[in-house]
Amino acid sequence: MSLGGYIVYIALLMIIPIWAQSRVKRTYKKFSKKATSSHMTGAEVARKILNDNGIYDVQVEETRGFLSDHYDPRKKVLRLSSSNYHGQSMASSAIAAHEVGHAIQDAESYAFLRFRHALVPVANLGSNMSMFLIIGGFLFGMSNLILLGIVFFSAAVLFQFVTLPVEFNASSRAMTQLVSTGVINNNEERDTKKVLNAAALTYVAAALVALAELVRFILMYTASNE
Q: pLDDT digit string (tens) for 106-135?
């Protein structure tokens, strides 16, 4: 790869995630100002959907941070950032319902969620070790070390791609639940989908960046053995 091509490549790796994050923030800001017809807070939305699905062992808690919302399957806790916990907006309802989607996946032992959980230790190891192995392989001219690093990094890439169906499915469940429970009406579905789709972009961007890096490492390894 030429110097110019490499610069473009690095720029794209930086631009894609930044663009995705910017899109999420713009969309969230816009729809955090629009209240739902039900005027339920994110915490109320989460609790209602959980109860309607017979899930009573999951606690809903407030947490600090901007868009730090997440579901912790180990502790059975759904944490919502303050603005979403107390907010009555479309954005708050969409994000709360999305996280409940993960709780429902957990309760139903959704296959991709279980697979992702199983990959966590392998993906963490791959993320931490791969760069050291690949860089060390090039420094010491050890192609086997480079290859091992690529294998480790592949595990991290696999985790990113397994995350996609988990997130898309949670968003699909969220829309179904928001409508069926009456949290939003038919006129609000389109705007709610925009919030969920924007959030999904961050996962797509992360997966594409990881794949691009993997391809680059493979091409470097191939070139070093020619």
A: 999 999 999 999 999 989 888 888 888 988
Q: In whole angstroms, give the CA distance from residue 43 to residue 28.
A: 17
What is the structure's pLDDT at 127?
A: 84
- Both tokens assigned to 48: 């209602």
| DSSP 3-state of 133 | helix
Query: Torsion-angle region of residue 39: left (phi > 0), alpha (psi -120 to 50) or beta?
Result: left
| HSE toward the beta carbon, residue 60, CA cutoff 13 A | 23
What's the half-sphere exposure (Cβ side, CA atoms, 13 Å) at 77?
A: 9
pLDDT (tens digit per residue) in 8-24: 666 667 788 888 889 99
| Residues that are catalytic | 99
Total-model pTM: 0.88
Of residues 201, 104, 212, 194, the one with CA closest to residue 153:
212
Alpha helices in the chain (DSSP H): 3-31, 42-52, 82-86, 90-107, 111-139, 143-180, 189-224
